[in-house]
Amino acid sequence: MNTDNLSKHGLHPRYLHFLVNVPLLYNVLGLMSLGAVLSLVYRGVRRKWSDLPRVQSIIGLMTSSFFIPILVLSIFPHQEARFLIPVTLPVIFLHSQRIRHISNTEQRCHEKGTAYNITFSRGSRRSMLLTLWYFINLVLTIFFGFLHQGGVYSLSTHLAAEMRLKPRLTALHLVTSHTYSLPLFFLQQTNSRRSLFNRQTGKRYHLARQFYSYEMGSTPLEVVHMKLHTLLEICELKKNEKRLDYRLYLALPASLMEEFYVTASNLTADLDFSVEKVFYPHVSTEALPDIFHLLSDECMNYDTQTYCERETLYLSPLKFLSRFVQQFGLTLIRIRR
Fold this sequence. Notes:
Elements: H1 3-6, H2 16-45, H3 58-73, H4 88-95, E1 105-111, E2 114-120, H5 124-147, H6 151-165, E3 170-176, E4 196-198, E5 203-205, E6 211-215, H7 221-242, E7 245-253, H8 257-266, E8 272-279, H9 291-294, H10 297-300, H11 317-326, E9 330-336
Parallel strand pairs: 3-6, 3-7
Antiparallel strand pairs: 1-2, 4-5, 7-9, 8-9
Helix pairs in contact: 2-3, 2-4, 3-4
Transmembrane segments: 24-45, 57-77, 129-149
Subcellular location: Endoplasmic reticulum membrane
Main location: endoplasmic reticulum
């Protein structure tokens, strides 16, 4: 309930669960579930009590198990789709038969002595819904399975190889901005917090930490620059005092590279940086490309001195398409002094 605490993880509008997360998780079934709830609300407003499911019935129980938890979770301004995974059971129970191919099947149900029939028939509408179900799942599988934050895995394998090849007394520092933090298990590092025992000396010791990760979330790039400057000073101090070398990196979506250059030129921090590698594909919804900026005069004008490629759009639409595609990458930047 503390908004200040939730703001560290991101604040969302309270309607996000109903309008975005439910269709995102369950697509066709999610829309059917929301439509069914709206239909029940409409019947209640019209006082058509006989058309509502009994409170003691399984339909009433499953509908409540879908609607009430989402309604309660919508009170909190931090809303992620994964919070709604437990409502999968009532969604499938209530509406899966609407898209399944069941031909002329009749089921007889009993509820407190009252018998009634439910008939499932195969039709063109059901076939269309099933086709739409498959299509949406295929599209979302490609997007979330390979494109969304897709560069994080490639970055992890790249840094894991660098950890194996780096000098022994060298630590890696990675700052992530506007992207997911790096899964540390890919690096296969030993636990530096565990206490080890040296039988020769009879003393306990800890292994030196080899990798440091700093997640900046969606904080402004000015704050990211100041963080890099602070880390650079600390690493230089350790290098001079303890002879511990370092490598400082920043992982940033390619769509923010121009803003990063502009911010660096406006600040007085003494930073030297170079692009090590760009990992494709990578779509970060926190930093989508600004297509209006790419179409603006400063990017289209050949004579304008900006950080855009000057020939973009001036020579050929293919140049614009190429630059647009290049925005969907994850850039690894080496920071030096």
